[in-house]
Design goal:
199 residues
Length: 199
């Protein structure tokens, strides 16, 4: 089942997980895996009762955290408020799940809780100052909110990696700040002379 899942043969993986569960119907990690395979197969309506039932029965803290995380991702688009509750519960159960902060920030945006979303993005960037995806998402939010004071400041506080310099330059270009964008690209060329993107 795991091999089929890894190969992207999700429907076949689902059937293999179900066969295993006939023998061990209460095996929580396999119920979790089945739920994830159903989600990957686009069968969300089938995944929800599988994951919810597994969560009801699971006693292992790590498995419960993973089930909450899976349910959070399952409800991300249709029910962002419920998805946020699940992700926050996953982090309560396992405080090491810092990677969920970016997903939480995205859900907070969907719920128009913009100050909370900004705070969540800042937490990610304090912990991972060269996380280019977090910089991009954070500054897109700031631009939409018209926060000119903070817009692009995260790039200036971060180490000057090639990816971040180019990311800032792209923002400057897309917002019509052409002179600043050119200087940023030139700085990237000087610092990273082999950068085809900057040139």
């Amino acid at each position: 089942a795991k091999a089929l899942h890894a190969l992207g043969r999700f429907d076949e993986a689902v059937e293999s997980y179900r066969i295993f569960l006939v023998a061990k119907p209460d095996h929580a990690p396999t119920r979790l895996a089945l739920g994830n395979a159903l989600i990957a197969a686009g069968r969300q309506e089938e995944a929800e009762p599988v994951l919810s039932a597994a969560l009801h029965d699971a006693t292992d803290t790590q498995v419960r955290a993973e089930l909450h995380q899976a349910l959070g991702r399952l409800h991300r688009d249709a029910r962002p408020g419920l998805a946020l509750e699940h992700l926050e519960r996953a982090q309560e159960l396992d405080c090491a799940r810092n990677a969920l902060d970016s997903e939480r920030a995205d859900l907070l945006e969907k719920l128009h809780r913009f100050e909370d979303a900004k705070k969540a993005y800042r937490q990610v960037l304090e912990r991972e100052p060269i996380n280019s995806e977090a910089h991009r998402a954070y500054n897109e939010l700031l631009y939409r909110l018209g926060d000119e004071e903070e817009f692009l400041a995260s790039y200036d506080r971060a180490p000057r990696s090639q990816q971040l310099m180019l990311g800032k330059a792209q923002f400057l270009l897309s917002t019509g700040r052409y002179g600043e964008a050119e200087r940023c690209y030139r700085d990237a060329i000087i610092r990273y002379s082999d950068s085809k993107e900057a040139s």
